[in-house]
Specification:
The protein is mainly beta. Strands 1, 4, 14, 15, 16, 17, 18, 19, 20 and 21 form a 10-stranded antiparallel β-sheet that branches. It is globular. It starts with 7 loop residues before the first strand and ends with a strand.
């Protein structure tokens, strides 16, 4: 019988953007020598922040290199592709992120050398008592009104600020003006893109002593300037079976994301695999345990990210942990 594909434990790249904190090192033991550590790109084939395989036959290789050699790992849905269509990050916002907007695929294709646009989802892992985020505009604005507000420094009055708490989720379609506020620790699932157009950055100065670049023309080209309904938390239904509970968080054309809670007693086991259709990714956001499969054993801890190739071995998960289960 042909051996099925084995899971790959990943090591991320880190980013030291000026708004970051230290929680990804302190609480997730990322051991990345950056201060601040704003983001870790956990599952990525993007050249701006690749992730690397730890252990096994591909030890030390970029995930991008592995997928170029084994495009079948992406699954039948992605036939003919050899890069990951999504990107998964942890984000530690010690300070407010810039107010920004991402382009659609069509705009990025035309104006950014054929790159992908960026639709994304945030799952809030933790949030300080007064943490907020920006989601769209309170009232409809014209392009000129936006330009005037940016020039006068009054843009903040037009933004819709939404309180956030642990376990919230937000779906951010391309074109939505948004910003993660100070005090939020977030897992982000997004298209495989690094296109961000900044509208406003609080006049902050980077390490080079200069204000960070704004992209007002492009941002207003792609931004939805209508008023946004306040995002409501979707109704979520936990489905239980022995040793495991799961709930759908988001389903869109780019990805499907579930929250999966594993809690196995001594003899209980949870089986998990990716079928031939598409790869999956397990992002451990809490707890620890072991994943075993034919010919291998993979201990995992809070913060670990595991790429599960399409047509994978049956994995047996044992432990007490919470995952984001991302399906490509």
């Amino acid at each position: 019988m042909q051996n099925k594909n084995k899971p790959l434990l990943l090591r991320p790249s880190g980013k030291d953007y000026l708004w970051g904190g230290s929680r990804l090192n302190d609480e997730f033991e990322k051991n990345i020598d950056l201060t601040p550590l704003a983001e870790t790109w956990e599952c990525s084939t993007h050249p701006d922040g690749p992730s690397y395989v730890v252990g096994g036959a591909f030890d030390g290789q970029e995930l991008a290199e592995v997928l170029r050699a084994h495009p079948e790992y992406l699954g039948e849905r992605h036939k003919g592709e050899n890069t990951l269509p999504i990107l998964i990050k942890f984000i530690d916002a010690k300070k407010d992120l810039s107010v920004q907007v991402h382009p659609t695929d069509a705009y990025a294709q035309e104006h950014e050398n054929g790159q992908l646009g960026k639709t994304e989802m945030w799952y809030v892992l933790d949030a300080s008592k007064d943490a907020k985020l920006v989601y769209g505009l309170k009232r409809e604005r014209t392009e000129q009104q936006m330009r005037d507000a940016i020039a006068k420094g009054t843009l903040m009055k037009d933004l819709q600020w939404v309180p956030v708490k642990k376990d919230d989720l937000f779906f951010i379609e391309a074109g939505t003006i948004h910003a993660i506020g100070a005090g939020a620790l977030v897992a982000e699932i997004q298209e495989n893109s690094n296109l961000t157009y900044r509208l406003y950055d609080y006049d902050r100065v980077g390490k080079d002593g200069k204000k960070r670049e704004l992209h007002i023309d492009k941002a207003l080209d792609v931004a939805n300037l209508k008023s946004s309904a306040e995002p409501k938390q979707p109704l979520r239904v936990l489905k239980y079976r022995q040793g495991i509970a799961s709930e759908l968080l988001t389903r869109c054309k780019y990805f499907e994301v579930y929250r999966m809670i594993v809690n196995t007693e001594r003899r209980q086991k949870v089986h998990y695999r990716a079928d031939e259709i598409a790869f999956r990714v397990l992002l451990c956001v809490n707890g620890c345990g072991t994943i075993s499969y034919e010919g291998g054993n993979l201990p995992f801890y809070k913060g670990d990210c595991i790429f599960v190739p399409a047509d994978s071995e049956v994995l047996t998960i044992h432990g007490q942990a919470q995952f984001l289960d991302v399906r490509g």
